[in-house]
Design a protein that fits this description.
The chain has 5 helices and 16 strands. The chain has about 300 residues and is α+β, with helices and mostly antiparallel strands. InterPro entries: Extradiol_RC_dioxygenase, Glyas_Bleomycin-R_OHBP_Dase, Glyas_Fos-R_dOase_dom, VOC_core.
């Protein structure tokens, strides 16, 4: 069993437009845009990162906004909900705020003894805010008070068929997650002694496979401290039979990727070097940063990419 995994590092999804995506996370949810860059494999598409003040691993939601992308189809083999932590007592504030911004799909409930507020993003993305005790500082953007600010990730909920659920549960166990509880068709896993973003839920469903599009999660990334621990994880996964990519430099972290039995793409990302490697913390996410191999395209990309007005 691996002991290098800390919990979530980031979650990456697909959007249908940059401006609407930026407005939702910075103006509605009050998160900070910590990086404005481009997709390494498709530099004509942004890669936008939102998180806390520094983009701490375990707080960062990232997006590929493909302009005009069709919506994904919900089904098995995908992440259905990405949940963030807010302080206890903050949900009434958020229910009123989301209603003011006319956010759809607002529902309240309780799961595993924790109160949550579910809602939908601009592309139908599934989100939830969960009340817990969490002493991480929140980013108080666009008028969100400290006592209600989002602290970072709580969990992801993966909708998987029976075979995918069993295989993914076994994988999570190998990655150091422990089965904590079950409620209905949902099983909760938690990595002990990890960061605050240490929960994964698996919902077993009898449904056809979903298809990715706007509003879909592209991949889920798990945190390790450094490249040495990442290489240990990579070797262990490959020794177990998983096909794992070589280590890839993503400028702000090093990444490896592999496909899970349930169909969700997993990444293991390093906490180093961080989002301040090319920008001062006070100005994170303000300028367009390009990977070195795409810097020669700057003039063309600045003319092509959709302007983002903050």
């Amino acid at each position: 069993m691996l002991k290098q995994i800390n919990g979530l590092h980031h979650v990456t999804s697909i959007a249908s437009g940059a401006q609407g995506n930026n407005d939702f996370f910075t103006k509605t949810l009050g998160m900070r845009r910590v990086k404005k860059t481009v997709n390494f494999d498709a530099p004509d598409v942004y890669h936008l990162y939102y998180g806390d003040e520094q983009g701490t691993p375990g707080t960062v939601m990232t997006y590929f906004p493909f302009t005009g992308a069709r919506r994904g189809r919900s089904g098995a083999g995908e992440v259905s909900t990405t949940a963030f932590i807010v302080p206890k007592g903050a949900l009434p504030y958020w229910q009123a705020r989301l209603a003011t911004f006319e956010v759809p799909g607002i529902e309240t409930g309780t799961r595993f003894g924790e109160n949550f507020l579910a809602f939908r993003g601009p592309d139908g993305d599934g989100f939830a805010l969960v009340e817990t005790d969490d002493d991480r500082p929140g980013w108080t953007g666009n008028g969100v008070p400290e006592e209600a600010a989002i602290r970072g990730f709580h969990s992801t909920d993966m909708r998987l068929n029976a075979r995918g659920a069993a295989g993914t549960a076994e994988l999570l166990g190998f990655m150091g997650y422990e089965r904590e509880d079950s409620q209905g068709n949902v099983t909760r896993f938690r990595v002990p002694n990890g960061n605050a973003a240490q929960v994964i839920d698996i919902s077993e469903v009898d449904a056809p496979a979903g298809s990715q599009g706007a509003g879909s999660v592209h991949h889920v990334a798990f945190s390790v401290d450094n490249r040495e621990k990442q290489l240990e994880v990579r070797k262990a996964l490959m020794d177990t039979g998983y096909q794992v990519t070589p280590v890839i430099d993503r400028d702000y972290f090093w990444a490896i990727y592999f496909q899970t039995p349930g169909g969700v793409l997993f990444e293991v990302a390093t906490n180093e070097p961080g989002f301040d490697r090319d920008e001062d913390t006070a100005h994170l996410g303000e300028a367009l940063r390009l990977p070195r191999q795409h810097e020669h395209l700057r003039e063309a990309l600045e003319q092509h990419l959709e302007p983002i007005h903050d």
